[in-house]
Amino acid sequence: MNKLILLFLFLVSILPGTIDDDCSAVYSRATYALSHSKKALKAHNFDHQVYYSGKTLEAYKKIADGMKECDCVNATELILDITMDAKKAADPVDWARGRYYSKKVYLNTQELITILDLWAESHE
Known about the structure:
By secondary structure, this protein is mostly helical. The protein has one domain: Four Helix Bundle (Hemerythrin (Met), subunit A). The chain contains five helices and no strands. The chain is elongated and about 45 Å long.
């Protein structure tokens, strides 16, 4: 009986934190995407730029999945826009177009992280 009560209390104690944990995962993935988008910008050849942009796109797919459990609605539309740009950066027409979209993804990812920071501050 005591074990059931302890299990119940443990489960109840972790339930309120699940939304914050999911948003923390989105934040973590966004910083990962920022890192790869920065590497794409610093790449000195086309193949590396495409590779790191692909990694950024993978991160944004995971971010979109994580947003299903996170209630930071201010970030949803921005994430969709960045994902579209990340697709264009990962499969560019040429070097210049790839760098253009990589830079756009990098700058918008910084904005996304700021939005997530502000959301986290308002939910403390």
